[in-house]
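Module 6 notes. Inverse folding takes a fixed backbone as the condition and produces residue identities as the prediction. Think of it as a translation problem where the source language is geometry and the target language is the twenty amino acids. Below is one complete input and output pair. Work through it position by position during the lab.
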């Protein structure tokens, strides 16, 4: 029977983090953020000071979260005896903080893979500043294991933040490239959740709602970032998509996207977008009814084939509007890419995500799809 979980407390709204009551979590905070954001969150520092909460700032997070950064963060907040963690930033920041909150001294990231992790941890307040990852409401975290150059998808209730503060105001200053990457990441979460074999009626509701919002608002958020309404809708859509895939999982796009991130450091949402249409076209014949149902829910008309085609065209259109480059345009060395196809395909299958597809995906399918980009 389907099991739907969303145990995180979720607070949504506009411009409320500056007044949020953090004192309920203790007297000393460990703020995890990145180098860009640390100078742009005075409203948070001021709020903590107002509540007489001291804090330590850890701003070492780069574009991709790695095991070594997790170890450094863990060491730091334990040394500083912090009472709780505030993760404020994009998916990399929140994913790093989730693992730092949970991992024990001397434990390795790989020790927590692939079995679900369930243990008590220091309170974690997740504050997303992008509208995409959904990490604030999921039991997943993705971390690069630098010893093997692979991205590990860790899962379990332990990785669910204590509370998610989804403040639409915080994503309103995202540059265009980030709006594209995170918006299309959220789109991928939602369409993969709906077409996953783990999909269920409740996750469907969130996936459909997210897709409607993204199709309607991502072009405007991308082209006119100052449109607050479009930003607010994208912020909610990312949250909904996160709730959907937290319960229905992601599938082949995410499975194939992670190796691209690990080896070529393509931002997660961009590598998803590069793969999205081809992967969905590949699996849709095996799940035509499901894809057609989704198209119907989104308001497309015609025969099942026509509706699925309209859905695929929407993907192409969104990627075009958001100016998603090809692998070559991004600068990926295609000789290296070809050499790595087998490793990437094996890593994709090892993540378990392709197996959630409505289609029975085999290693050869993933190899074939990677090769189609040569
Ligand atoms: Fe994602």
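Target side of the pair, the amino acids:
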């Amino acid at each position: 029977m389907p099991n739907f979980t969303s145990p995180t407390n979720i607070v949504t709204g506009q411009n409320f983090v500056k007044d949020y009551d953090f004192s309920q979590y203790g007297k000393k905070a460990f703020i995890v953020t990145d180098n860009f954001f640390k100078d742009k969150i005075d409203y948070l520092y001021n709020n903590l000071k107002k509540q007489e909460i001291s804090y330590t700032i850890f701003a070492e997070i780069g574009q991709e979260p790695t095991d070594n950064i997790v170890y450094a963060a863990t060491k730091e907040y334990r040394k500083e005896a912090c009472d709780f963690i505030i993760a404020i930033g994009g998916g990399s920041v929140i994913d790093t903080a989730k693992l730092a909150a949970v991992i024990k001294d001397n434990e390795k990231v790989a020790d927590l893979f692939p079995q679900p992790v369930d243990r008590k941890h220091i309170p974690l307040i997740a504050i997303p500043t992008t509208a995409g990852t959904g990490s604030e409401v999921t039991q997943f975290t993705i971390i690069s294991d630098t010893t093997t150059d692979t991205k590990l998808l860790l899962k379990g209730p332990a990785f669910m933040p204590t509370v998610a503060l989804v403040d639409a105001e915080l994503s309103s200053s995202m540059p265009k490239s980030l709006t594209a990457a995170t918006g299309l990441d959220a789109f991928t979460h939602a369409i993969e959740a709906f077409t996953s074999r783990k999909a269920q009626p409740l996750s469907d509701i969130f996936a459909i709602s997210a897709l409607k919002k993204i199709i309607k608002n991502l072009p405007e958020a991308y082209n006119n970032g100052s449109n607050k309404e479009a930003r607010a809708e994208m912020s909610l859509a990312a949250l909904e998509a996160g709730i959907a895939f937290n319960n229905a999982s992601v599938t082949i796009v995410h499975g194939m996207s992670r190796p691209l991130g690990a080896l070529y450091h393509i931002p997660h949402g961009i590598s998803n977008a590069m793969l999205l249409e081809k992967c969905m076209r590949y699996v849709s014949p095996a799940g035509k009814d499901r894809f057609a149902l989704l198209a119907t829910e989104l308001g497309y008309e015609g025969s099942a084939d026509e509706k699925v085609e309209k859905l695929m065209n929407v993907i192409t259109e969104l990627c075009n509007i958001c100016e998603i480059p090809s692998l070559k345009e991004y600068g990926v060395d295609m000789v290296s890419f070809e050499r790595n196809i087998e490793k990437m395909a094996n890593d994709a299958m090892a993540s378990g995500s392709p197996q959630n597809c409505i289609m029975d995906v085999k290693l050869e399918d993933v190899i074939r799809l990677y090769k189609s980009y040569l």
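Reference fact for the lab report: The first helix runs from residue 42 to 50.
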